[in-house]
UniProtKB/TrEMBL annotation:
Its EC number is 1.1.1.169. GO terms for biological process: pantothenate biosynthetic process. Keywords: NADP, Oxidoreductase, Pantothenate biosynthesis. The lineage of its organism: Bacteria, Pseudomonadati, Pseudomonadota, Gammaproteobacteria, Alteromonadales. GO terms for cellular component: cytoplasm. This is 2-dehydropantoate 2-reductase. Residues 168-286 form the Ketopantoate reductase C-terminal domain. Residues 3-136 form the Ketopantoate reductase N-terminal domain.
Length: 291
């Protein structure tokens, strides 16, 4: 299979080196076209070179795009301008949700949700935490269509363990909830995930979770607020030493994904006629702190 990985971010680089390791043909599509014909990624003390390719693409290609939520709309617009040949698919991975997702998801798009952790240190990618992933068709009308067997098998070999998930949106809502229950608090308290256990946030987390459950149910997804707070607590314990991605973004003066997490919950709840005051407060507070 031919693969085209969007950018050289942490997750994209990790997938690029692992796809190469299992014998796939992998190129990289930088955000901005440049003169470079090859891009170096270092992994586990090995330097690997990847050819550079931009859209349009002429042969069937599997696109892997692990990009920030605020870049998704532009990326999909680029794809719309340069439609892919038949037999291509687009694997998207990002935290949070977009209001207009239903309208912009391409036919052959899949969501890849992961608990693997990675970060970049210059050209080097570090696989910081082993996890597992879930793959499913992005468009609701394709949810029960069969899984693309070869694509699934290659991704599973490259970065196991991969689960096929016809209910990928359920999984995405759970991930959104966990991020809403952890990330903004680490920014507000400027602390590692594990240090949250020393702060008195349980009551607030219950309110965040209940607001998310209401909205999810309104959109046809069943979640349980007690289980969400419990899961967030286990993630906090399992990642106690980590700084959340949102705190890292704030510290490095990068845009955060808060608009697509607690901000998404606040705006969508308001649009559905209900306030989500705790998510709204966290959203505004993180925006202030990261301004
Ligand atoms: N890192 C992790 O451990 C995890 C991350 N996630 C989520 O996955 C997503 C990606 O995370 P991460 O890899 O850390 O993010 P990064 O910011 O490290 O990487 C994103 C990459 O996407 C590239 N990009 C954006 N738009 C385009 C475009 N139009 N064309 C080509 N490349 C593009 C960026 O390019 P440029 O370099 O030019 O900005 C960047 O290289 C996020 O939503 C994150 O929350 C989820 C689980 C774990
Ligand atoms: C689960 C958590 C909070 C782990 O750090 C994460 O996904 C993030 O930092 O964005």
């Amino acid at each position: 299979m031919h693969w085209l990985v969007a950018g050289t971010g942490a997750v994209g680089s990790l997938m690029a080196v692992n796809l190469r390791r299992v014998g796939e043909h992998v190129s990289i599509k930088p955000r901005v076209p440049g003169k470079a014909r090859a891009i170096e990624i270092i992994h586990a003390a090995h330097s690997l070179e990847f050819g550079v390719q931009q859209f349009p693409i002429e042969q069937p290609t599997q696109i892997f795009a692990a990009i920030k939520a605020y870049d998704v709309a532009n990326f999909l617009e680029e794809l719309k301008q340069a439609p892919l040949p038949a037999g291509s698919s687009i694997v998207l991975s990002y935290n949070g949700m977009l209001e207009n997702e239903i309208n912009i998801m391409p036919e052959r798009a899949l969501h890849w949700v992961t608990t693997h952790g990675a970060y970049k240190n210059g050209n080097e990618v570090v696989h910081a935490g082993l996890g597992e992933s879930w793959l499913g068709w992005a468009r609701v009308e394709h949810a029960s269509s069969s899984r693309p067997a070869e694509l699934f098998s290659v991704l599973n070999n490259a970065l196991p363990l991969l689960n096929w998930s016809p209910a990928i949106n359920q999984r995405r809502w759970q991930k959104l909830a966990i991020n809403c229950l952890i990330n903004p608090f680490t920014v507000i308290h400027d602390c590692r995930n594990g240090e949250l256990l020393q702060h008195n946030i349980t009551e607030l987390q219950h309110q965040v979770a209940e607001e998310i459950c209401w909205l999810a149910e309104h959109q046809g997804i069943q979640l349980n607020s007690e289980s969400l707070v419990e899961s967030a607590r286990s993630v906090i314990k399992n990642t106690a030493n980590n700084y959340s991605s949102m705190l890292m973004d704030v510290r490095q003066q990068r845009r955060t994904e808060i608009d697509y997490l607690n901000g998404f919950v606040a705006r969508q709840s308001a649009a559905a006629g209900t306030a989500a005051p705790t998510n709204e407060t966290l959203w505004r507070r993180v925006l202030e702190l990261s301004a």
